[in-house]
Amino acid sequence: MVRIAVVGLGFMGKTHIGVYNSLHNAMITALCDKNLDRVNLTSLDAGGNIESSSGSVDFSDIPKFTDFDEMLDAGGFDAVDITLPTDTHVAFASKALKAGYHVFVEKPLALDYRSALQIAAVAEESGKICSVGQCLRFWPLYTEVKKILDSGRFGSIRHAEFGRYSPPATWAAEGWLGKSSRSGGASLDLHIHDVDIILYFFGRPRSVRSVGVPDGSGFYSHISTVYQYPDISVTSTGGWGFAPDFPFNMKALYVFEKATVEMDISKEHPVMVFPYEGEPYPLELPEGDGYRFELIDFLERCESGEISEEVSPSVAAESVRLVQLEVQSANEGREITLD
After folding, report:
1. What integer pLDDT is reported at residue 52 of this predicted model?
2. Ranges in the chain, pLDDT < 70
């Protein structure tokens, strides 16, 4: 049994609580949020761009804190789950790791590559488990396609494109997602999901060339990128500058030698396979989403002590770095080569 302290009780914090409550090897033993109303939560209902947990909860018998340092000193848990604004991740994750706790920290790991590496260094020195919420690496919509990619069932992949479209991110507490100085804007907070899955599927590109819609703070409310690889064309686009009533959607298209695979969560069958021989068919997907599977993985690692090679801070830092290079490319109007 892993005892968990959840820090930050907005949309994602409530989502994580819903997952932990459904798992046999997790127990929430502390809650922390600077807002007294949020820390005394009685419901998991929350806005967001993905349907998540809901319903009432009763945490009247566990400690609650509005001060993070006091919570760390009080203890009574094995791991700290940090679902706070991105600009706080370095300070909070580092404190928890240095205090001897395992840490799960939401994506993006940090606002910039250097800060992300700071967390990675602290995690390595601590010897504790530190997993980052790069949830697409656990989401069946993507993991089942990764199996096709790795198996070579339909030959080599020739082209891949990814899309992530959202209305303005107004659901975050105190509107922090809409403040690029805190979130990194859509180019970092939203787009990083596809950047991370591109790195996971195909490795580091040779170069990137990006264009976008500036948000006035050095980041982008919409960004589109071409990634240069030696034998595959890869593109991505995404943003949250759409109309308020525009439905959130995430898409992907994979063109193999012997089949095309389409992902579109707005459709009845979110992943369809169109083989060159035979009839199209929906790809069978395990029940559950990336939030659930990433936390299952985190708990198992806390119990075994086995550090992740796939969602470690050093891996997550590479996704932050690639987004930074895309923003640089868009700012400077030129292709950026990776060293």
Report:
1. 62
2. 46-54
3-state SS of the chain is CEEEEEECCCHHHHHHHHHHHCCCCEEEEEEECCCHHHHCCCECCCCCCCCCCCCECCCCCCCEECCHHHHHHHCCCCEEEECCCHHHHHHHHHHHHHCCCEEEECCCCCCCHHHHHHHHHHHHHHCCCEEECCHHHHCHHHHHHHHHHHHCCCCCEEEEEEEEECCCCCCCHHHHHHCHHHHCHHHHHCCHHHHHHHHHHHCCCCEEEEEEEECCCCCEEEEEEEEECCCCEEEEEEECCCCCCCCCEEEEEEEECCEEEEEECCCCCCEEEEECCCCCEECCCCCCCHHHHHHHHHHHHHHHCCCCCCCCHHHHHHHHHHHHHHHHHHHHCCCEECC
Residue 216's pLDDT is what?
87
Q: In the block, which residue shows the tokens 């009533």?
A: 245
pLDDT tens digits, 59-115: 999 999 999 999 999 999 999 999 999 999 999 999 999 999 999 999 999 999 999
Confidence (pLDDT) at 48: 63
pLDDT of residue 49: 60
Residue 79 lies in a domain: yes
User: In CATH, what number is assigned to the domain containing residue 89?
Assistant: 3.40.50.720
Statement to judge: residues 81 and 166 lie in one domain = no
* CATH code, domain carrying 193: 3.30.360.10
The total of structural domains in the chain comes to 2
Examine residue 82 and state whether it is found in any structural domain, yes or no: yes
- Give the pLDDT confidence score for residue 218 in this predicted structure: 85
* 181, 325: one domain: yes
Please report whether residue 315 resides in a domain.
no
One domain for residues 148 and 282: yes
